[in-house]
């Protein structure tokens, strides 16, 4: 008889998945991170310069596929 109930471990949030103060990877400034994945402060994010692959590339990116 298998009467063994799987123990339900309380789902604990992974470390780093909670809002906490972190250091921005860009300016090394301490900012409030909303959670995991938030490694860039809003200041740097607003700059959007860290976002590569922009459509503002030079005309050399335009090539006809025909
Ligand atoms: Zn920053």
Task: Provide structural commentary.
- With 66 residues, the chain is mostly beta strands.
- It has a two-stranded antiparallel ribbon.
- It has a domain at 16-47.
- The longest helix is centred in the C-terminal third of the chain and has 6 residues, at 42-47.
- The protein has one helix spanning 42-47; strands at 20-23, 30-33.
- The chain binds zinc ion.
- Zinc ion binds next to helix 1.
Notable traits:
mainly beta; 1 helix; two-stranded antiparallel ribbon; 2 strands; 66 residues; 9% helix; binds zinc ion
Find the structural class using helix and strand composition.
mainly beta
- Ligand types: zinc ion
In round numbers, the mean pLDDT is 75
Shape: flat
- According to DSSP, the number of beta strands is 2
Order of helices and strands: EEH
Cα gyration radius (Å): 22 Å
Short description:
The protein has one helix at residues 42-47, and strands spanning 20-23, 30-33.
Question: Helices and strands in order, then pairings?
Answer:
Elements: E1 20-23, E2 30-33, H1 42-47
Antiparallel strand pairs: 1-2
